Amino acid sequence: MHTPVTIIGAGLGGLTLARVLHVHGVPVTVHEADASPTARAQGGMLDIHDHNGRLALKKADLMEEFHSIVIEGRQTMRLVERDGTVLHETVDDGTGGRPEVQRAELRRLLLDSLPAGTVRWGQKATGARSLGEGRHEVTFFDGSTVVTSLLVGADGAWSRVRPLLSDAVPEYAGTSFVETYLFDADTRHTRSARLVGGGSMIAPSPGKEIFTHRESGDTLHTYAALARPEAWFAAIDFADPAAAAARIAHEFDGWAPELTALITDADTGPVLRPHHALPAGLRWSRVPGVTLIGDAAHLAAPNGEGANLAMLDGAELGKSLASHPGDAEAALAEHEQSMHARSAEPVTFEGDETFGLDSENNTAQAMLRMLTQQDASA
């Protein structure tokens, strides 16, 4: 018989795990802090990769549903110089391995694939403790508790389950995003919209970059990335949107007006998104009855793989649990071994040459050379 599974966190990783368990007839309950599926915004676009995110969806038997939410044309990507010169464009011809979807739509798809009542909303975990013999108790904000013999922490960066396994805590990674949105961009922000094109656009420079996604319709979602200390951002009054936008845009002084307008002309106030990370290569000793997936296990600064890895973590754990009825410990050990190996793989564009925000290689010309080499070898 299968041990019932208790998942903390209804993000993409936790929901993928719940779906795979449901497909295999394993009883599962998910506890989520949000009061409802629409209690808060779910972020922007996600590119779901062939080798991890889409593989997870195949294991969840959701590929047909996934194809229905893919936004055509969004794999188009433009590389531009700071003066707005378009250096390279990769056109979405429908054959790429990273189809784009809205995160909220993907989460809804996963939620809809589960039986009613699987997710318990408004259950914000505040702590967890061991009861011995592989059993654990999770306490929620409202004072209620749940006791389980198989606990999975899918509760993100500030996981309340992680302390059962490790004393590691996320630290500031040295970079942050400042997010903005432009609505009805094709008619109200035409110059910026033309530069972004039909998919995404990146304008890189050492220590800073502007990255923009064209989301559903003609909404432009921009991430102004800066390598600055936390104290530098703390000195900016984000409660004053105009002043904050001007301060961030000042860091891109001399860049093309249609690039800086993505910050200064935004229809929303700039939102600070600091990046945190767990120690690279984090491991822990096997603790009976509990494990982690996604950011709870291997939080890293944004690299395009976070959501994809979380989904694959969930799918692989679900498969392992289904394959080891009556021996959950064998499944958890198998899961942790493969997850740690996956999360340890460096994210690079070409060989060992890393294009991080702090890297001297983070320039439009360096990325153009990389893209040209890839095109020549294709």
From TrEMBL:
<keyword id="KW-0560">Oxidoreductase</keyword>
<feature type="binding site">
    <location>
        <position position="295"/>
    </location>
    <ligand>
        <name>FAD</name>
    </ligand>
</feature>
<feature type="domain" description="FAD-binding">
    <location>
        <begin position="3"/>
        <end position="187"/>
    </location>
</feature>
<dbReference type="GO" id="GO:0046677">
    <property type="term" value="P:response to antibiotic"/>
</dbReference>
<comment type="similarity">
    <text>Belongs to the aromatic-ring hydroxylase family. TetX subfamily.</text>
</comment>
<feature type="domain" description="FAD-binding">
    <location>
        <begin position="289"/>
        <end position="332"/>
    </location>
</feature>
<keyword id="KW-0503">Monooxygenase</keyword>
<keyword id="KW-0274">FAD</keyword>
<keyword id="KW-0285">Flavoprotein</keyword>
<keyword id="KW-0963">Cytoplasm</keyword>
<keyword id="KW-0547">Nucleotide-binding</keyword>
<dbReference type="GO" id="GO:0071949">
    <property type="term" value="F:FAD binding"/>
</dbReference>
<protein>
    <recommendedName>
        <fullName>Flavin-dependent monooxygenase</fullName>
        <ecNumber>1.14.13.-</ecNumber>
    </recommendedName>
</protein>
<dbReference type="InterPro" id="IPR002938">
    <property type="entry name" value="FAD-bd"/>
</dbReference>
<dbReference type="GO" id="GO:0004497">
    <property type="term" value="F:monooxygenase activity"/>
</dbReference>
<dbReference type="InterPro" id="IPR036188">
    <property type="entry name" value="FAD/NAD-bd_sf"/>
</dbReference>
<feature type="binding site">
    <location>
        <position position="103"/>
    </location>
    <ligand>
        <name>FAD</name>
    </ligand>
</feature>
<dbReference type="GO" id="GO:0005737">
    <property type="term" value="C:cytoplasm"/>
</dbReference>
<dbReference type="Pfam" id="PF01494">
    <property type="entry name" value="FAD_binding_3"/>
</dbReference>
<comment type="subunit">
    <text>Monomer.</text>
</comment>
<feature type="binding site">
    <location>
        <position position="47"/>
    </location>
    <ligand>
        <name>FAD</name>
    </ligand>
</feature>
<feature type="binding site">
    <location>
        <position position="40"/>
    </location>
    <ligand>
        <name>NADPH</name>
    </ligand>
</feature>
<dbReference type="InterPro" id="IPR043683">
    <property type="entry name" value="TetX_monooxygenase"/>
</dbReference>
<keyword id="KW-0521">NADP</keyword>
<comment type="function">
    <text>An FAD-requiring monooxygenase active on some tetracycline antibiotic derivatives, which leads to their inactivation. Hydroxylates carbon 11a of tetracycline and some analogs.</text>
</comment>
